[in-house]
Amino acid sequence: MTVLSAKNITMQFGGLTAVDQFNLELSANELVGLIGPNGAGKTTIFNMLTGVYVPTMGEIMLNDQSIIKKTPHEIVKLGASRTFQNIRLFKDLTAVENVKIAYHNFIDYNMVQGMFRTKKFWTEEKKAHEECMKLLDIFDMGEYADTLAKNLPYGQQRKLEIARALASDPKVLMLDEPAAGMNPNETAELMETIHFIRNKFDITVLLIEHDMKLVMGICERIIVVDYGKTIAEGTPDEIKNNPDVIRAYLGD
Ligand SMILES: Nc1ncnc2c1ncn2[C@@H]1O[C@H](COP(=O)(O)OP(=O)(O)OP(=O)(O)O)[C@@H](O)[C@H]1O
Fold it and tell me: Where is the ABC transporter domain (predicted)?
């Protein structure tokens, strides 16, 4: 079953075509890598899929519903969440508060209940706290729950971003270079965790990553873009030996 699809999406910035008629079909529970050299258009594709940019042309469907012109917030509510290449946490909130903000989008009480601190409010608050702590525990971050985001080590901040993206209960999770700046051990551990959460939450994961080896290790399918176009698509083995991919990465 297709959960997210893009048809001929194109993004032009003035005279520059950053993404040119890109197509995508993500099935339920797939773990797919989106790779390509610097400036290939990967982040622009993510920005279109998540409502940050409205494509110049093309259609995007999330669970059979068009999400063209929907806001990023609406798209999160419809089931697709993401992380950013540059960490975007609320630096002066604690780890668990960061996760709770995303979780609260889905919480079942209204403003009046919140203002007057009704019993339902407290019941839901307790549940929110427990669910958010469970998410932190998945990333081995329980001990950092009350640490301000800005005081977390860098690798933990990256993990917290993913935990926060999961708190909105997505069907599709898009990760923009989740291991950027991590050391090899942290990276290996994160890749295992991404595999684990895909299975545990039964979600589809689309992952941008620079490190080819790393993507090859966990993705079942890889899409390679260069100059805004798909130049190859296939299993890690197919991609590894594709002459167009080798040329794009190594140059002529
Ligand atoms: N807001 C923008 N305005 C103008 N040009 C842009 C904008 N965003 C991206 N571009 C250009 O679009 C092209 C694709 O950029 P994009 O950031 O999507 O590539 P990328 O594959 O994510 O690169 P990297 O791996 O370096 O992050 C680049 O030429 C970039 O300079």
Answer: 4-252
